[in-house]
Design goal:
Layout: E1 2-6, H1 15-24, E2 29-33, H2 46-58, E3 62-66, H3 89-106, E4 111-113, H4 124-144, E5 149-151, H5 162-172, E6 177-182, H6 183-188, H7 193-199, E7 204-209, E8 211-213, E9 216-220, H8 229-238, E10 244-247, H9 256-271
Parallel strand pairs: 1-2, 1-10, 2-3, 3-4, 4-5, 5-6, 6-7, 7-10
Antiparallel strand pairs: 8-9
Helix pairs in contact: 1-2, 3-4, 7-8
């Protein structure tokens, strides 16, 4: 297990500068959020991807590909369209396929994604089947490129809790399909941290770290919420988690360097206990 940092917390930096700073602070992984100015999958060139790969290799950094950019597909609507959209869900699917291709080029541990929120009043069964169909096709595409997909339950989305993910997981039933777990989300939705980690130990490929309070989906600086980090890290060590635990504080990007530095100091003490 190692600490990483999500580039959505460096949204005002050039990507190469962000990676250099994150590495210098001591992190061993990059959560690379593909965004309009950070390897936009629809516009980036092979040479840009190669340059990022070389920087990662030079610092011996692992990475995951994150796909939660807010306005990359629609400049007016946050996180739209999604895999649930009745008309243009294929646009989201195309974005994810291109993300898988970048993940392959960067030798990423996984591509992380979520269901999204429906914008039309459709029957839940129809929405779930649409999501399952997309997930199956994406899993086949990822498997053909030896890339793992890690699905993230997200508060307010169709698949929000791990109980909902469990249903989806069994319906997709694909070896390339695993879990991204945001520890703060568990607190927000009042799910047990230890039991959840233990339940998903064989399919947990990506962890997000932030602090959060019960009932409030707000990514807080460490120490400002209710997450028990001693329990969290102890349980991850217990399952021999050998992927990255990535800080996700996108709303702190205005103070990116100090936030990343403070986060590393706070979390590294738990990592070495």
């Amino acid at each position: 297990m190692f600490l990483g940092y999500n580039t959505n917390g460096f949204s005002y930096h050039q990507l190469t500068d962000a990676i250099e700073i994150i590495a210098e602070l001591g992190y061993r992984g990059i959560g690379l959020t593909l965004d309009v100015h950070h390897l936009d999958p629809f516009r980036t060139t092979r040479s840009e991807i190669t340059a990022v790969r070389k920087i990662l290799e030079s610092h011996n950094l692992r990475c995951v590909i994150e796909t939660g950019a807010r306005f990359i597909l629609d400049r007016r609507r946050k996180h739209q369209p999604t895999l649930l959209s009745p008309v243009d869900s294929e646009r989201r699917s195309e974005f994810l396929r291109k993300s898988i291709e970048i993940a392959q080029e960067l030798n990423a541990d996984c591509v992380s994604f979520w269901s999204g929120t429906p914008t039309e009043p459709e029957n839940r069964e129809i929405l779930e089947q649409r999501l399952i169909d997309h997930c199956l096709r994406l899993c086949d595409y990822a498997a053909s490129r030896q890339v793992k997909l890690a699905f993230e339950p997200e508060p307010g989305m169709l698949i929000d809790k791990t109980a909902e993910f469990e249903i989806l997981f069994h319906k997709v039933n694909h070896p390339s399909f695993g879990l991204t777990l945001d520890i703060g989300h568990l607190i927000c939705l009042e799910e047990p941290v230890r039991d959840t980690i233990l339940r998903w130990k064989d399919h947990l490929w990506n962890v997000h770290l932030d602090d959060m309070k019960r009932g409030i989906h707000d990514h807080l600086m460490f120490g400002e919420g209710e997450v028990n980090f001693q329990e969290t890290f102890a349980t991850l060590k217990e399952i021999h988690f050998n992927y990255g635990a990535y800080v996700e504080l996108s709303r702190h990007a205005h103070d990116a360097v100090r936030t990343a530095e403070k986060s590393f100091r706070f979390l590294s003490s738990y990592l070495t206990e």
